[in-house]
Fold:
Amino acid sequence: MTAPLLVAQAISRRFGGILAVNDFSFEIQPGEVMGLIGPNGAGKSTTFNVISGFYKPTTGKLTFLGEDITGLSAAAISRRGLVRTFQHGSLLREMTVHDNILIGALRAVRDNSGREMRVRETAALLGLGGLLHATAGSLPHGLQRMLSIAIAFAARPKLLCLDEPLTGLNSTEAVAALEVIGRIRDEYETTILLVDHNMRVVMRICDRIAVLNYGQKLAEGTPEEIRNNPDVIRAYLGDGE
Structure:
């Protein structure tokens, strides 16, 4: 069997008297799209921040590509190939689309000509090829979400962590984003961890899904298993899903 790309072993994160994530374990296999879902306040964002190095786990262990990365900084983890987006965007609004994507490519590509090729290839993939000279802040919301993904993906990470990438998108934009995420996985063999509230999209694209509730793992399985899990239905999906 192929070794997991990421292993989270019994990770917990405490903020004073609040236990935001409690003894949460899961694995991400190479080439899969792993979903992380749960009600508001379930601990998804905290888990995301622990995995990407923005928070240190209070207890537990994180292994990426066979290396113990527990407690490493976000920059150190990013250099190892685990890169994330942010729920509220990470773009620099006064800079051009080109320069925003270039920032993502700087560490990954050494020469200027290679960086320029990376920027243009990434922009084309994300539907931004004709907007390289536009300022990021002038883009409509849907394209700003695509730019946030482009900045992260310009590094060509081994694990791309997408934090609420579909927030605020209409149905047409969400479908387009879904197609892009699928291409990133299939054409670039990129493993993806996805957190989002759009359950139709999550169920459609993810190979496996982990469900958090009150900081603890409620369930893990295929979309079909999660969709029919009575505990998940009661806690999150509701009878209408």
